[in-house]
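C-alpha cells in:
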C-alpha cells in the first residue's frame, strides 16, 4: 500500500515521464537518424501510463540524453508545461490526458490513411519510419500554419478594433469631456 509520502514521489515521476515523452515527441532532431534506428518490438513502445521499466526512450536514449539533445527553446517550453502541469487539479490532468490520447489516436488514424493513400507496401521497420517522418513533417506543417494564422490575425486586428470602436461610438450617447455631478436646484448660500 502506498504511504502518504510516496504519493508526491509518484506524481513527480509520472509527471516527469509524461512531460519528457511529450517534449521528446515535440523536439525531434532535424536529422533523420530515425531511419537507422533498430525497431525491436512495437514501434511506439508501451501505452501511456505503463512505463517501459527504464528511463530509455526512442532510439534507446536516456531522459538526460533526450533533455540535452533538446534545443533551448524546447527546454523552456518543457519547463513551462511542467509548471502548468504541477498547478493543475487531478481533474484537469485527466482532461489533458484524455485530450492527448485523442490527439494521438487522430494522428495515428491520419498516418495510417496517408500510408494507404501512398500505395506503398512497407516492411514493419519501413512503416515505423514512414509513420515517424509523417508525424515529424506534419508537426512542421501545423507549426507553419499556426504561425501564418497568428501573423494574419495580427494584421487584421487593428482594422477590427477600429471598426468596433466606430460602431460602439455611434451606439453610445455623446458624452461631454468633463462630467460634473449635477447641482441641486436649491443652492446652499
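Residues out:
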Amino acid at each position: 500500500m502506498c504511504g502518504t509520502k510516496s504519493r508526491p514521489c509518484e506524481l513527480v515521476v509520472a509527471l516527469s515521464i509524461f512531460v519528457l515523452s511529450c517534449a521528446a515527441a515535440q523536439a525531434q532532431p532535424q536529422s533523420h537518424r530515425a531511419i537507422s534506428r533498430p525497431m525491436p518490438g512495437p514501434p511506439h513502445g508501451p501505452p501511456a501510463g505503463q512505463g517501459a521499466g527504464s528511463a530509455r526512450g526512442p532510439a534507446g536514449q536516456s531522459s538526460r540524453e533526450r533533455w540535452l539533445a533538446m534545443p533551448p527553446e524546447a527546454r523552456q517550453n518543457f519547463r513551462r508545461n511542467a509548471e502548468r502541469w504541477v498547478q493543475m487539479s487531478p481533474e484537469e490532468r485527466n482532461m489533458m490526458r484524455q485530450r492527448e490520447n485523442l490527439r494521438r489516436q487522430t494522428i495515428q488514424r491520419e498516418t495510417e490513411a496517408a500510408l494507404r493513400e501512398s500505395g506503398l507496401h512497407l516492411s514493419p521497420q519501413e512503416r515505423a519510419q514512414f509513420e515517424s517522418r509523417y508525424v515529424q513533417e506534419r508537426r512542421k506543417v501545423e507549426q507553419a500554419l499556426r504561425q501564418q494564422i497568428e501573423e494574419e490575425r495580427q494584421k487584421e486586428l487593428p482594422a477590427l478594433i477600429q471598426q468596433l470602436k466606430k460602431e460602439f461610438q455611434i451606439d453610445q450617447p455623446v458624452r461631454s469631456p468633463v462630467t460634473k455631478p449635477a447641482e441641486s436646484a436649491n443652492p446652499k448660500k
